[in-house]
């Protein structure tokens, strides 16, 4: 196992992100699934310049991107989008694509659950078949119920992956699954070798060590499953806009209190602490 990080949490150039990851000892990056933002050759050159590998990509399920939408054309467009995200990962030498089937922020649906399941299976079979032909493995990511009504638990994701086939697995995010699963370690064991990707944030979505998770036990359980991929840091702190937190003074860029853009120094510290906590477990596993 080795350290990676997402890049969707802070708006900045890819080069700025890669320079930070190189400085902090990260090995890989999991890119936001926005293919038009990352031309293959230009992005490949940047990755090589900073010695950072592309671990994979993640679908960004906003707007009309929804694999279980009632509208056929919307589902068709989402499938084509997901295939473009697969192409991005494959073109950059990645190994995985994390897929969220539904739309983020949609917590109810007018459709029948049987129809949604059928649409998810149909769409994911096409995406996963395409991914396998490109040497990419798809991981389905369950999210907590406040972000999506579809796919919240490990047993649901495993059942969907089984129906999809094509070596589809699970992207395990302990932040989300600690809300939905009664026993986080048992959930990891239930996934076993099906874990394709592992996202990292503590129970409060701050860096590991800033919350209540037992990271030594989590990493040891991952080792038991045989997982040897990335630990992909995905921390996302709230901006404290109250007097208690000096109205975000230590968190945001100068004169950016309205936009709430995290400052470089604050965000760098989040990733530094993440690496500091996780690296000893990797070295002694």
Automatic annotation (TrEMBL):
Q: Which SUPFAM superfamilies match?
A: Xylose isomerase-like
Q: Write down what this protein is called.
A: Xylose isomerase-like protein
Which residues belong to any copy of the Xylose isomerase-like TIM barrel domain?
A: 19-239
- Which lineage is the organism of this entry classified under, starting from the top rank? Eukaryota, Fungi, Dikarya, Ascomycota, Pezizomycotina
């Amino acid at each position: 196992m080795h350290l990676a990080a997402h890049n969707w949490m802070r708006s900045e150039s890819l080069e700025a992100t890669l320079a930070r990851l190189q400085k902090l000892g990260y090995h890989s990056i999991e890119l936001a699934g926005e293919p038009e933002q990352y031309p293959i050759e230009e992005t490949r050159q940047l990755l090589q310049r900073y010695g950072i590998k592309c671990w994979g990509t993640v679908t960004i399920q906003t707007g009309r991107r929804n694999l279980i939408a009632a509208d056929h054309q919307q589902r068709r467009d989402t499938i084509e989008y997901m295939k473009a995200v697969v192409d991005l990962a494959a073109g950059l030498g990645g190994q995985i694509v994390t897929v969220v089937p539904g739309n983020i922020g949609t917590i109810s649906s007018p459709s029948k659950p049987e129809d949604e399941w059928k649409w998810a299976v149909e769409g994911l079979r096409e995406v996963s078949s395409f991914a396998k032909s490109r040497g990419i493995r798809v991981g389905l990511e369950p999210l907590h119920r406040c972000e999506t009504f579809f796919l919240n638990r490990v047993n649901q994701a495993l059942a969907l992956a089984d129906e999809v086939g094509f070596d589809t697995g699970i992207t395990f995010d302990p932040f989300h699954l600690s809300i939905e699963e009664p026993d986080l370690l048992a959930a990891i064991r239930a996934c076993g070798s099906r874990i394709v990707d592992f996202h990292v944030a503590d129970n409060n979505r701050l860096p590991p060590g800033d919350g209540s998770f037992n990271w030594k036990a989590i990493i040891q359980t991952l080792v038991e499953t045989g997982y040897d991929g990335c630990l992909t840091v995905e921390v996302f702190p709230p901006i404290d806009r109250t007097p208690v937190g000096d109205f975000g003074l230590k968190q945001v860029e100068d004169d950016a209190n309205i936009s709430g853009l995290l400052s470089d120094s604050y965000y760098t510290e989040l990733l530094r602490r993440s690496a500091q906590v996780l690296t000893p477990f990797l070295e002694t596993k």
